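Below: protein 1.
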Amino acid sequence: MHPILSQKRPDYQSAVDHLHKELGALRTGRATPALVEDIPVSAYDSIMEIKGLASIQSQDAKTLVIDPWDKGLTRNIEKGIRDAGVGLSPVVDGEVIRIVMPPMTEENRAQMVKKMKEFLEEAKIRIRGVREDGRDQVNKMEKEKEISEDEKYKLFDEFDKMTKEFTNEVDQIGKTKEEEIMTV
């Protein structure tokens, strides 16, 4: 594999990893810590994410339990979740916060699929951006006579193959996530 291709592979993978992170925060009817861990909360005169203030666990498929390390932040975390607009209703239960996932309606599921498809398209745009950046580098290398014209076109084909490989991976991730969202 040409060094420029192996240099760009992590950039392609980064786009897929970012997609996984975005899709993890989508509600599918199952309680996962990813739904709330990045929600900003006012704490210690600054804004912090919940994952930096508390442990987050799935008690069961429908319930999240947030256990703040500093019990004085319980109300702030509850307020942060309410204000985040994610459609969750936190309940303070002593020193922990419980979130029972509301049942997903057909309309909610359709909205989640629409949002998921936006994330998929953003990932594909990032992947194509990596390909274009690689092609620009290859063109520059050819102009500086570091590679031949034949090698340039060979590298273009390799970038196209790698782009197709990662785009197919994104499509597969989307198919799996859509099934997960639409499963009642």
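Below: protein 2.
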Amino acid sequence: MGRWMRRAVAAAAMTIAGAALAAGEMPRAVVESFSQGLIGVMKEAKALGFEGRSRRMAALVDETYDLPFMTRLAVGASWATMTQEQRDRLVAAFRRFTVATYASRFEGYSGERIVVAPDTTANRNGVVVETRLIQDDGDPVTLNYQLHETDARGRVVDVFLTGTISELATRRAEFAAVVRQRGLEGLIALLDERAVAMAAGR
């Protein structure tokens, strides 16, 4: 295959991928895969223990979330003043915190299932995929995922609890205050402290 042909094929693939993202096909597939993985972790939660759940969730989070982007938005203007080494350390701490949060929240299974809505909603930030966590012993919980386009597939950059409460906005308000009061090292320490506390069941 000649060089021009390879370029034409690559361009066509990118066009198709972009159209699929715009139509919500790939974002929905990303959320569906994450949801199935999450239910799988819940079903094996007791046998896995916190460490096992953390390992499984780490793989799911890495595959699904754009953590560097989320970290940058969460810390706000302070990101611009950080070195790359500082940014890398902060992203790593945010990853540990995110994984620990999932591992601690989803520690058992009682017949839950996650239903992903067939349609997606486009907005200026990308695409929203709506899901509902169905529980046998309680009301359904709405979890909506905001995805943006990256590597032609889409990655999660925010989760809206009950469909309206932005988890990223909540983090940003808290993280910005911590950076102002305690600096970057203080924020990293806080994230690690919380991850350790969740691992200990506190």
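The chain is about 60% helix and 20% strand.
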